[in-house]
Amino acid sequence: MTQARKPRQFSSTEHLASEAVAAYVDGELRMPAYLRAAQHLSECTECAAEVESQQQARRALRGAGEMSMPHSLLGLLSQIPSCAGNDGPAHTKRTFRSSVAGVRRRRR
């Protein structure tokens, strides 16, 4: 008769980081890292549950369809690159803020 193996207990620093879980689910890990993660997942129910949750979220996002944005926001975002000139980032921020203020004034 064989005895059931007791599940290994992991310290908080031995678990997969959230970035590693996402990379594992997205297939972005290099082979050595993937193999280490797969080994850990075979022994750690906590991380395996995190991977399952991430996979469910990924499936839900892929099945959600296209997102839309208000035309006013799209217009403001499209102005950002055209605002950046020789004046640098400060000019871009000031111009973007004034563009937002202009949209707010027009709405009233």
Notes on the structure:
With 108 residues, this protein is mainly α. The protein has helices at residues 18-26, 31-43, 45-62, 71-83, 89-107. The longest helix is centred in the C-terminal third of the chain and has 19 residues, at 89-107. 6% of the residues are buried.
For the structure shown, list the relevant keywords.
single chain, 108 residues, mainly alpha, 67% helix, elongated
In brief:
With 108 residues, the protein is mainly α. It has helices at residues 18-26, 31-43, 45-62, 71-83, 89-107.
Topology summary:
Layout: H1 18-26, H2 31-43, H3 45-62, H4 71-83, H5 89-107
Helix pairs in contact: 1-3, 2-3, 4-5
Secondary-structure content class: mainly alpha
What are the low-pLDDT stretches, counting only 5+ consecutive residues below 50? Answer: none
What is the count of DSSP helices, taking H or I runs of 4+ residues? 5
Strand composition percent: under 5%
Mean pLDDT across every amino acid position: 77
Give the CA-based shape. elongated
Assembly level: single chain
Instruction: Encode the helix/strand succession as letters.
Output: HHHHH
